[in-house]
Design brief:
The chain is mainly α. Helix content is 84%, strand content 0%. It contains eleven helices and no strands. The longest helix has 38 residues. 32% of the residues are buried.
């Protein structure tokens, strides 16, 4: 809390310098006034962005976990899909965004696709690596006791992967906000990212900073929510 106060004081001090143009840097006071004066507009657009973030992250989680488990169980699928997975991250989003717009139109579809693509990679990679690193002696013992492949997956491998899955989800939660903003910049009529872009073009600097503050708070809130779900889903880790 003290660090936050110091950052705000430093921000206010820098913004108050005579050499700093108000169009370049809005002070915390100006940003707060923009949050109050434009709250209806800001929170309406934030609601649109929140829907894109949550739906895109949910899609990425379902597809990511499903693909990671499938790649873990089927060796040839892992060998075939892993290079494609890496390639999906090597292509810049700025190149893929027009293709998503052509495929899904100008509605919410391209935004969800961009958010899901950005969040997809950390979930798959973390999940797959952990599934492959479960204690070999434990799996061997379960085989000797007659446990089937699916039983070993359900009883040993998936529980062991949960803490690391949530680590990937926390990263994806932060990336999802970036993906939603970029999706709105690429083509859209509503959203907090688009509002920030328009305010910047109109030289409404306090509104730009107010939008950035809301986006930051959304990322922090989603990060905290994932951490809270982790404590519920993995009680033995919380107790430890």
């Amino acid at each position: 809390m003290l660090l936050l106060v110091l950052v705000l004081l430093l921000w206010q001090g820098v913004a108050s310098l005579p050499s700093i143009d108000n169009l370049t840097l809005a002070s915390p006071v100006e940003t707060w006034h923009a949050l109050i004066d434009d709250r209806t507009l800001l929170f309406d657009e934030a609601g649109t962005t929140a829907v894109e973030i949550l739906l895109g992250l949910a899609i990425a989680t379902v597809l990511g976990v499903t693909l990671a488990v499938a790649m873990h169980l089927v060796g040839w699928l892992r060998d075939a899909a892993y290079p494609l997975l890496l390639a999906s991250q090597a292509i810049p989003i700025v190149v893929l965004a027009p293709l998503f717009i052509l495929a899904f139109g100008y509605g919410i579809g391209p935004k969800l696709a961009i958010v899901a693509l950005i969040c997809f990679f950390p979930i798959v990679v973390v999940m797959l690596d952990v599934l492959r690193s479960v204690d070999a002696d434990l799996l061997k013992l379960m085989r000797l006791l007659g446990a089937s492949r699916l039983t070993r997956l359900w009883k040993a491998e998936l529980p062991a992967s949960l803490p690391f899955l949530f680590s990937g989800l926390r990263l994806a939660a932060v990336f999802s906000v970036i993906g939603a903003v970029f999706g709105e910049w690429s083509g859209g009529d509503h959203g907090l990212g688009l509002l920030v872009l328009r305010a910047n073009n109109q030289l409404q600097t306090p509104r730009v900073y107010a939008g950035v503050v809301l986006l930051t708070l959304m990322a922090i809130a989603l990060f905290a929510f994932v951490s809270h779900v982790e404590r519920i889903a993995i009680p033995w880790r919380r107790d430890a």
